[in-house]
Amino acid sequence: MAGEQTTTWRRWWQISGWPLLWKIIVVLAVPLLVAVSLGGLRVQTALRASTAFSEMAARVQLLPQLVALDNAAAIVIGTLAQRTVTEDMIDELTR
Fold first, then answer.
1. Residues 6 or more apart in contact with residue 23 via CB below 8 angstroms
2. What's the predicted TM-score (pTM) here?
């Protein structure tokens, strides 16, 4: 009984014994599966890149505010170093 099963199994794996329809299905299905897999990986990579670009765009929008804050801090540090802080300077910083 075991010998019959191995013989049947070997016959099944021999491509020459397959019907033509099965051969056509395999010839079409294998490249299709590879293309779908590689396409999915490419989409996943593009989604990661778009997420990174979105995060970078959000950071770039903060840049003008950070520059203004840096200018204000430089004015404060400079005037404190010279001990010349005036009421007008304080009012300008609170705006």
1. 15
2. 0.49
